Amino acid sequence: MAGHLSLKRVIPTYMSAEEVLPSEVYLQEDVRLQLDKRYLLLAQSGDGKTSLLNILYGNNRHFHGSVDYPWGNSLAVDSVRKEKFSYVFQDLKLFPSLTALENIQIKNALTGHKSEEEILGMLERVGLKHKAQTLAASLSLGQRQRVAVIRALCQPFQMLLLDEPFSHLDAENSTILVGLIQEELEKQRAGLIMTSLSPSNVFDFDQILKLSL
Predict the structure, then answer these.
(1) Which domains does the chain show, CATH number per domain?
(2) Structure confidence by residue, pLDDT tens digits, 172-189
(3) Average pLDDT score, the chain
(4) Which of 15, 51, 91, 116 has the highest count of CB atoms within 10 angstroms of its CB?
(5) Distance (Å, rounded) from C-alpha 124 to C-alpha 39?
(6) Cis omega before residue 22 (within 30°)?
(7) pLDDT in tens, 10-56
(8) Going edge to edge, which strands form the sheet with 31-34?
(9) In terms of pTM, does the model score above 0.85?
(10) Residue partners of 93: CB distance under 8 A and separation at least 6
(11) What digits encode the pLDDT tens for the residues 110-137?
(12) How far is it, in rounded angstroms, from Cα 138 to Cα 144?
């Protein structure tokens, strides 16, 4: 049976109760997120979607309350990031001076999760094989999003965090990328937490959680 994350009365220190209430996550007594389920976090800009993902990932320590992990809370953050979580950041965090392929390889070199053939195959599926040697700085935002998603899939994980991952993609490219993500989720029997400004049915979500109502 899959474990779960438990958020107990969590709220960023820079947000007030008035800002986050009513919320289905913030300041709730015990919100449990199963590691094999798919969740959509729904809220407007400024309502704390990215803050929550960063809290879960360990990037943001400025919060009240507690987050309990099924593998123990004393694990080094680097270990958790390498084995438990993978994260597609809203600002993508690609290295602009590296090529699209190098940005993916730098992650895969740490994990050894994919072969070179698999990586090139994913780039081909999302229509970017011809951009493999192009610097990230020269890619469009939509192209960078596709690269960032492929990079995130190049590691083992129990939960995939996606922060508005399709905001610069058209419907066709989003569908292709969803297919890639879906395959990796099923292969790893992993869960998903995705943020969005508006309702979305790109995945078969088990639960929609509204950060603000």
Answers:
(1) 4-210 (3.40.50.300)
(2) 999 999 999 999 999 999
(3) 93
(4) 51
(5) 28
(6) yes
(7) 999 999 999 888 899 999 999 999 999 999 999 988 889 999 999 99
(8) 31-34, 4-12, 63-68
(9) yes
(10) 148
(11) 999 999 999 999 999 999 999 999 999 9
(12) 9
Which one-letter amino acid corresponds to residue 5? L
Q: What is the DSSP string of the chain?
A: ---EEEEEEEEETTS-HHHH-S-SSTT-S-EEEETTSEEEEE--TTSSHHHHHHHHHTS---EEEEEE-TT-TTS-HHHHHHHTEEEE-TT----TTSBHHHHHHHHHHHH--S-HHHHHHHHHHTT-GGGTTSBGGGS-HHHHHHHHHHHHTSS--SEEEEESTTTT--HHHHHHHHHHHHHHHHHHT-EEEEEESS---SS--SEEEES--
